[in-house]
Amino acid sequence: VTRSAHPAAGVAAVGIITLIAVIALGACGSTGGNVVTFDVAASGTEGARTLDTALGWHVALTRATLHLGAVYLNLSVPISGSQETNCILPGVYTAEQLSPLDVDVLSASLQRFAVKATGTDDEARTGEVWLTGGDVNASTDTTTIADLAGTATRDAQVLPFTARVTISSGNRGIAPSDPSQPSQHPICKQRIVSPIAIDLRPRDGGTLVIVVDPQQWFANVDFTAVPADGVFPDSNANIASQNLFSGLRAATATFQLSFQ
Amino acid sequence: MICLFAFPPGLHAQPAGAPDTPAPAAPADAPETPAPAAPPAPAETPAPAAPADAPGAPPPGETITITDRLSAIVRGHEAAPDVGVQDIRVEAGKLSTEIPHKDATELLGWAPGFLLTNEGGEGHAEQIFLRGFDAREGQDIELRVNGDVVNQAGNLHGNGYADLHFIIPELVQSLRVVEGPYDPRQGNFAVAGGADYELGLTRRGLTGSYEQGSFGTRRALVLWGAPGSNSHNFGGVELYQTDGFGQNRDARRATALGQVEDRLGNDGLWRLTTGAYLTDYHSAGVVREDDYAAGRKGFYDTYDFGQGGSASRAFVLGDIEVQHADVTTHHQLSVTAQTLRLREDFTGFLLDQQTPFQQPHGQRGDLIDLESDVVTGQAQGWMRRRGVVAQLPQDLELGYFARVDHSSSQDYRIEDATGHPYHKDADLDALLGDIGLYAAVNARLTPWAALRGGVRSDLFTYDVIDHCAAHDVAHPSKVTPPGDASCLSQEDFGHYREPVQRVTTAGAVVLPRASLVLGPFAGVSPSISYGEGVRSIDPSYVSQDVKTPFARVASYEAGIAYKGSPGELDTTLRLATFRTHVDRDLIFSETVGRNVLAGGTTRLGGSLSGRVTGTWFDHNASVTVVRSTFDDTGRLIPYVPDVVVRSDSVVFGDLPWQLDGKPLRAISGLGVTFVGPRALPYGQRSDTILTIDGSISMTWDRYTLGLKASNLLDTRYRLGEYNYASDFRSQAEPTLTISRQFTAGAPRTLLLHVEVTL
């Protein structure tokens, strides 16, 4: 009995030493990457109150707010093909800002979103700005995405205007050109501004800055097509409204994303 | 009367006095001799095998004839020789009855390195982590009952899915676990290792018990075993029902198991085992950590009340074993029918892709409704021949294994608003074959050294019909567009095709395995092992005539074991270090709700385990540490635990008081589980898990009254933690980036236990 007790103690001692060594080995290492939390802020640009378009209009803005429903950063650049009809591409998102913000585009000062963004520290290649007030697939969304007022001047023409932009299937939807593909142009595609070219890597404690530049909003707008009351129809049926809506959604021209 | 005594292989199939000499797989008590009604407490722990060189021990390999007045035949099925320190055999005893175990899967915790989780509900097979492997529900661990493989080949939820809930824990007599692919008898799915449950009932007579406790949990159990028969003759029925903790965790199950065993002539045994099992349950799934932190969801809540499932199993297993003088032959045959329905939702509203051909839709819901039915026929047999070479006993065994599985599986996505299926993800019928042949030797090189191992070769065949082979078409017909159909009957430019595709292929594999076992030297026995294992491929990955991409594992092990009885304490200690490499590992994908193929992985670790049994206690404990990494990046494999500690203790004894002249016997058990922080994707770590289970019971005469408690400290812990993207519409806009989710561990559960044995 006495002799057999010693080997047991020996096995136990060797075992404990071995396990301590293995624990030390196993304690290091990682699956790679990091989870990050950061602020998101948006602003307009200096000089956004006045702008000149290629059609010869001088636009003086007195009010310009843009509703940003959400912001996403993507790992990859979308490719053409089946993804064209998919508004959500699982696996490509690396960071998200889910709280809305009405951005005063006429102000160059940073306006922070109420909630921090979360994500990973992977390199982001594209961004998405969701112009939505709720379900991105909803047929109807009465949220005012853009609220604009100002005066357009060309030569002797002085045309005060206002615009209130919403995005629903009825006013912004695009009918499919191929009847065999009824979902060729889903309404969610009209609400998502993408791809916004970026090259940044989010980090903990930083700030993602979204600069909204209204310069392109009126690039192709002929203000003479706006009804006499100066109110842009909230519908793509009007060519001026359609061009304004296209300008609002001009991805890289309207939105610049950077990380500070 | 002439009686035969077939010695345990430890005496005739082991090197001299090897410390882990296995007892017969199930020692059969004397059929003609009434067994004691009360369970033999410490005797249930296997006594150390008598050294073959001990005075009075019979010569190895010899079957002796005893003539005495007991008129008893003592014989059991011959167990395979142990293959080193990682070959663990545990007699159930009080560890089974006195430590709360919800089901038989939890008994695996007797062996080092096991962690069990369950994100799918009470009727869903446990997810098994073993020594750095995420073996899921059996994909990487071969699980057997009485030698019959339980893993379902061709199950769409997981190829190798093994649900052990049909085993009544009280009917488990012993458990053999081989951690690693070191035994030539191990077949498909033995990547991380294998386990074999031996059924038996040591408590003879008619036993009825009833448990009632927390969360509306009720369990009725009836067990019987004729006093004049051996422990392999039994019957048992279990009825179980619970409302479950938190939301959506109710469950019901019923199990019936029966077995008869008797002599076959003078030197044989036959055994017939039957069983049926039914279950229906709901499950809660995961909760997002941010929703819990913000108070949008409770810890034990669910997002999707549609989750749950049902399962059934019926089987017949028969075996015959004949032990001649130096030859033992064994044959067994089984037929098993199983059904499985799973409804799981890990992602909420994320994966419903809009194609141009479909009517416009938003996210309709990611609830998976998976059905997989499998009918399996298995046959296996072996012959073991003993001889003497160089004056040392030697064993040679040749055996075969054959199984055919016919599986039928469908996988649908269910619309949250209506509960109707809106998309068919898969519809597979598969006929899978596996015939394996092995040769195993137990060669004694010297009286203190034995080389055990051999080679195994398996041929796997696949005949798979995909009833939904075409999901997409690049240029559809403009006249008859595919619309919302899931299984398309057209291909490029609208040309017609049948939606069905059949593929057949086959692949063979050769698996060498060897262990060198030395000693024992003063009770200490070192061993080293090498083995290769294989996991057949999921039928959904099979391509026509393409060489079947097996997952192969190469495993190395070195360790020392001690077995002795210092201070009249039966003591077993094991120290093992191991390294395992898998060329094609399976990693869990929450988007498809099952494992998907990944690259090569390596595991390096060690374990220390032991069991000490005295006259008034039984203690079994283990600690396992492992580092699991991907070969290409060197980064940790997510979700598998680095450190697992498990301790099971039972103390028992007669109290100093008596009632009606009969003693009061008290038994108390304590089980402790500790799991270190697990690596999660994106450099995260999970919380640690520390749970304590306990029980106390008093037995007087034929009556037992007890209380069992799981999670005694009522720790609020996260049983499983995951980092992946999900959107359960808990916020205004879709949550699309990775986020922490968890499955809640059970809170404290108390069960009052009443038992009568007649």
Write up what this structure looks like.
The complex is a heterodimer of chains A (260) and B (758). With 260 residues, chain A is α+β, with helices and mostly antiparallel strands. Helices cover 19% and strands 35% of the residues of chain A. Chain A starts with a helix and ends with a strand. Chain B is globular, with a radius of gyration of 26 Å. With 758 residues, chain B is an all-beta fold. Helix content of chain B is 2%, strand content 53%. Chain B has a 22-stranded antiparallel beta barrel. In chain B, strands 5-11-12-9-10 form a 5-stranded mixed beta sheet, with no helix packed on it. Chain B has a 3-stranded antiparallel beta sheet with strand order 6-7-8, with no helix packed on it. Classes of the chains: A alpha+beta (260), B mainly beta (758). At the A-B interface, helix 1, strand 5 and strand 8 of A face strand 27, strand 28, strand 31, strand 32 and strand 35 of B.
Brief summary of the model shown:
The complex is a heterodimer of chains A (260) and B (758). Chain A has 260 residues and is an alpha+beta fold.
Give unreliable regions of chain A as ranges.
Answer: 1-5
Beta-strand proportion of chain A: 25-35%
Radius of gyration of chain B: 26 Å
Number of helices of chain B: 3
